[in-house]
Fold this sequence. Notes:
three-stranded parallel β-sheet
Amino acid sequence: MPLHRLPPEILLYTLRLLGSASFRQDARRLIVSKRSFQHARPVLLQDLDFSAQSLRRFVLADTEEGMICSKRNHVMTVSLGLDGLEKWHLTQSKQGDTESSRFNIRVIESWTVELNECMDALARMLQKCTGLRLLKLEARTGAR
């Protein structure tokens, strides 16, 4: 039986078994049919995984579209890995600044302020997520 002809209960169960990571690996898996996409989207929102950079994009998208408000009952786990400073710093230092030590402090301060604002926005969003079971914050080295 083709996937798009399965009853919604079985389709939803199958999509949950696959998990959100499966959809992130290949977004084409979401386009089986319009009906399956309607069931897959909440599954995709169950496990949110952010870096410092993707958190910023998510917060900006949510303020523009109200994305998570309509799906807040589906979010179950949120992971935030803070490993972006080193990569962000390397990107900024390529622009060239003769006073590298002063520049480094400005970069770190700017990154920290921006990250704090994004984390505050995420906290406000997550307070409305009734199904949230796990929030994982992890500081990682930039070697990932």
